[in-house]
Amino acid sequence: MGILDGKRILVSGVANNRSIAWGIATALHQQGASLAFSCVERNLRKVNKLAKTVSSDLVAVCDVQRDDDIAALFNTVGEAWGRLDGFVHSLAMADVDDLDRGFVETSRHGFALAMDVSVYSLIAMARHARPLMRAAGGGSIATITFLGGERVVPGYNVMGVAKAALNMAVPYLAWSLGGDGIRVNAVAAAPIRTISTSVLGGLDRAFKVMEEHSPLHRNVTKEQVGDTVAFLMSDMSRAITAETVNVDSGIHAMSL
Ligand SMILES: NC(=O)c1ccc[n+]([C@@H]2O[C@H](COP(=O)([O-])OP(=O)(O)OC[C@H]3O[C@@H](n4cnc5c(N)ncnc54)[C@H](O)[C@@H]3O)[C@@H](O)[C@H]2O)c1
What we know:
- This protein is an alpha/beta fold.
- The chain has one domain: Rossmann fold.
- Helix content is about 45%, strand content about 15%.
- Nicotinamide-adenine-dinucleotide binds near residues 40 and 62.
- Nicotinamide-adenine-dinucleotide (NAD) binds near residues 19, 62, 92, 146 and 194.
């Protein structure tokens, strides 16, 4: 018996087995959920292989910068399942140049790219998830954010501004979709080594700061993020929406 028995959940953002989305997928699978995946074309083969290990053969390509891809993804899920209980948004993108140079040098194109992929995609995908979640009598949406959207994390730059916008998109969506019984929450994860973070400077320093200064004196794993998302996907969190849950050994509470 798992807390997600009978739930059908779409997970976006698996690039490989180090992705936070993969930690989430394995946690959801352990709790009994049936899973579907969306990924970009270049990761399709890898994600198909990973999906099989959690008993899923529902994998669709979706570049979130393309409206047609988003519509096709939710059509595919609708045709396969007829309803959707949960959707996990675990994706983001920024131009590496905008992470390397001073924040004041952020390009117009880089700003638009980070906002489009990392923020607008949640809104567009929630809109397409809505009818399928209505058919399920309600649903749960979760996205993954970072403390750099609340406070300055040197080098996080334009992605910090995108996460700030994402953080506010969550309660606005919660208000917009709450009438349909759809909950929308965010999980703020501590630094975890993935493809995306490999382009950020200062990652080793961040791991050290976590060990020295977080209340729990330890780093966080993608599986720990996954367990929290499993809770948010489950009926155990049925009164929680418009919330950001920090999965970060408590580092968000610290200063100086
Ligand atoms: N790793 C961390 O330290 C950390 C901490 C807090 C929050 N996060 C957030 O977690 C989420 C997942 O990142 P991750 O660290 O697992 O890295 P990751 O590189 O494994 O995942 C990022 C995903 O975004 C996808 N993506 C990028 N552009 C896309 C597009 N146009 N269309 C569809 N998908 C696209 C990539 O293909 C990839 O699957 C991101 O929102 C990230 O900001 C990560």
